């Protein structure tokens, strides 16, 4: 049971004043479903604005407050897709465009009637020859109210939310933040001079405050370490079952290739673990294309040989399907029954599946998290394979997987090469097998950097590529740290490229209905569609060997690891593959370095280390929304700086008070609940 003191924090966001059904969706989109989430929705940055009397006084990129009078509303030819522009004039006749994408256009139209002076706060940019402000933070009729606030938090938004709205919800939420008992080790707490939890959350929203931010990050790291240690302790306590394969099923495999040394070594390591009674907790780390699936198949066949079932958990529906198809084909000669279960299976089909599982007719089940719902019962589950896309939450899934009395063995797979210093943070004390050798015959991917300004040439080159019968990916830029505008940009690019290539083009992005997304992916995978346009949501693991060209717009905005992952979508067949990184005009030093590293190396492990090196605290652009960030609050810098202490602290606490019953132990339980690591607490009870 959740401690009472936390109840106000776990109230639904909808209980706050001014939140109706209309706001529920955009809030949910950002994961802000409860008061707690809003409190932890820390500002991405703070802006300090300058009030100016006319636009001549400000430079490009500057945050300003200025009075403007709209002169014209200009809708795009493509309504609904944007952009919608309001042309407006300052006091001395300078013209500025105020630009909106998507549904924000309606807000803009309403707030900026022609002929009426308004105070506009936002970032002054340039669009072609014109000055522009995209999605202003505030539009007011008078210069007081919000306009008076020169330093202001900037929050991540989703479509339907504005800065002032989020700020007011955060403020309300903060007023509900209780005092909580201190869970940080007293020595540490004093040495650092950190504020209490309650003070820290308040300070963190007020202005840049390193101590407050560090404290909150430390909390998250401590909660994570503690939960991982609880999982580990629990799995040590629980009995698993030793799985002894006789090789009979594996002998029937008829693979068209020889396994690499790294694959064989990993299988041997896994086989050794499975023979132990203690449940395996192993991470299979291997770059994109390293061949993790075959290793997983071997592991699952060992379980089958031992008379047990195996399950493979994929992060998305698309990936689950793809794994299912691959495994079914590969395992066909072995005569094992492979089935697919996703959230979409309904009625008879679902019942049939569930029956097959209970009765043990299904040997290998592939699916999304649906495979661990309470209603799903296995006859005898011996092994769980987790194909992990997002690093965050692995441990939780491990705990999930271990619901039964006898813990199944667990193999987690990740395509993201994680720097050694971070493995501990993400995966706790798991054993690691590394696939550090690519299958033979892989050709290096030619990586080129090309200025975005030569987009036309790029389009022509893509045209030639498609005409030759090959396929290609086109990854759209992250325009701002804001999903709305990113999708607007993707839609615009889709419209433009469709004009060139007609219905050979399909698009996937996060806001499409899953059915449409799947259908589009399927058209691309089957070769019907030749060009796939995507935001960064291209599913990791999507495997279309005949796609041999990848274009990434504004590549400098992506993290190194992310670029590497994206590039890994090509170079999967025997054909020569290319990756073109389009770079914007304003290239930071870090951006430049990133592109150079990606161009020069294809070693995921190396790039991951470089990525960590390059990302100072400030350069986290885009990592959060891409799901790449491991933690919600701690950034990479903080992880590196604070994790060792947090981990040591957690260990010490576990050694002294493994049941978390002391005063500080009780506080630590609150911490676990606060970060929803309460499955960790539940494990305590099991033991
Ligand atoms: P990932 O590690 O990214 O999941 P996959 O398991 O999807 O990689 O493998 C990528 C491709 O390489 C697949 O088409 C697979 O059949 C092939 N493959 C895997 N192992 C080998 C090997 N040892 N030799 C040749 N091809 C292989
Ligand atoms: Mg894979």
Automatic annotation (TrEMBL):
Q: Which SMART domains match?
A: DEXDc, HELICc
Q: Does the keyword Thylakoid apply?
A: no
Describe the location of the Helicase ATP-binding domain by residue ranges.
273-435
Q: Where is the Helicase C-terminal domain?
A: 454-613
Q: Its Gene Ontology molecular function terms?
A: ATP binding; DNA binding; DNA helicase activity; hydrolase activity
UniProt keyword annotation of 4Fe-4S present: no
Q: Please report the name of this protein according to its UniProt entry.
A: Probable DNA 3'-5' helicase RecG
């Amino acid at each position: 049971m959740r401690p009472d003191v936390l109840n106000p924090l776990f109230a639904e966001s909808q209980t706050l004043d001014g939140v109706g059904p209309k706001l529920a969706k955009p809030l949910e989109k950002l994961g802000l479903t409860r008061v707690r989430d809003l409190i932890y929705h820390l500002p991405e940055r703070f802006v300090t604005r300058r009030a100016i009397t006319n636009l001549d006084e400000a430079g490009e990129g500057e945050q300003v407050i200025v009075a403007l009078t709209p002169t014209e509303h200009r809708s795009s030819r493509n309504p609904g897709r944007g952009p919608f522009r309001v042309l407006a004039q300052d006091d001395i006749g300078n013209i500025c465009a105020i630009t909106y994408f998507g549904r924000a256009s309606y807000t803009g139209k309403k707030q900026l009637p022609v002929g009426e002076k308004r105070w506009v706060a936002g970032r002054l940019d340039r669009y072609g020859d014109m000055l522009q402000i995209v999605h202003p933070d505030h539009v007011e009729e008078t210069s007081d109210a919000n306009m008076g606030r020169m330093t202001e938090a900037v929050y991540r938004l989703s479509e339907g939310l504005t800065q002032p709205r989020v700020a007011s919800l955060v403020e309300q939420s903060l007023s509900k933040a209780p005092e909580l008992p201190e869970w940080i080790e007293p020595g540490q707490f004093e040495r650092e001079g950190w504020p209490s939890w309650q003070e820290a959350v308040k300070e963190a929203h007020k202005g840049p405050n390193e101590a407050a931010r560090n404290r909150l990050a430390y909390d998250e790291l401590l909660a994570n370490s503690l939960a991982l240690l609880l999982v580990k302790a629990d799995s040590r306590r629980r009995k698993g079952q030793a799985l002894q394969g006789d090789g009979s099923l594996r002998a029937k495999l008829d693979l068209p290739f020889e396994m690499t040394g790294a694959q064989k070594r990993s299988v041997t390591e896994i086989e050794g673990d499975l023979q132990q009674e203690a449940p395996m907790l192993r991470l299979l780390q291997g770059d994109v294309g390293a061949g993790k699936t075959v290793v997983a198949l071997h592991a699952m066949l060992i379980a089958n040989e031992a008379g047990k079932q195996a399950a493979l958990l994929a992060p998305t529906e698309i990936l689950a399907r793809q794994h299912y198809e691959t495994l079914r084909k590969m395992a066909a000669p072995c005569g094992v029954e492979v089935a697919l279960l996703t959230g979409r299976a309904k009625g008879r089909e679902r019942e049939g599946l569930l029956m097959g599982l209970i009765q043990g007719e299904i040997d290998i089940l592939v699916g999304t998290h649906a495979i661990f719902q309470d209603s799903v019962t296995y006859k005898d589950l011996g092994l769980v394979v987790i194909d992990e896309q997002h690093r965050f939450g692995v441990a939780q899934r491990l705990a999930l997987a271990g619901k039964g009395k006898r813990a199944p063995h667990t193999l987690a797979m990740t395509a993201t090469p994680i720097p050694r210093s971070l493995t501990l943070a993400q995966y706790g004390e798991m054993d690691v097998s590394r696939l550090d050798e690519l299958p033979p015959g892989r050709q290096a991917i030619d990586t080129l950097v090309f200025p975005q300004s030569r987009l036309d040439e790029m389009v022509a080159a893509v045209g030639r590529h498609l005409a030759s019968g090959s396929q290609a990916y086109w990854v759209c830029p992250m325009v701002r740290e804001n999903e709305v505008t990113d999708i607007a940009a993707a839609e615009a690019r889709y419209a433009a490229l469709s004009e060139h290539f007609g219905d050979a083009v399909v698009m996937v992005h996060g806001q499409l209905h899953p059915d449409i997304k799947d259908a589009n992916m399927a058209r691309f995978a089957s070769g019907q569609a030749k060009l796939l346009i995507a935001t960064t949501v291209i599913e990791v693991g999507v495997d279309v060997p005949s796609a041999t060209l990848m274009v990434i717009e504004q590549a400098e905005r992506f993290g190194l690891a992310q670029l590497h992952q994206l590039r890994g979508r090509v170079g999967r067949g025997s054909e020569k593959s290319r990756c073109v990184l389009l770079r914007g005009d304003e290239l930071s030093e870090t951006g430049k370095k990133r592109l150079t590293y990606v161009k020069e190396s294809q070693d995921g492990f190396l790039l991951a280390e470089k990525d960590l090196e390059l990302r100072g605290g400030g350069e986290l652009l885009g990592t959060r929304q891409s799901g790449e960030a491991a933690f919600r609050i701690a950034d990479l810098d903080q992880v590196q700086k604070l994790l060792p202490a947090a981990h040591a602290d957690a260990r010490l606490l576990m050694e002294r008070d493994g049941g978390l019953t002391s005063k500080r132990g009780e506080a630590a339980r609150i911490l676990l609940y606060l970060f929803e690591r309460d499955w960790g607490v539940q494990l305590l009870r099991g033991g």
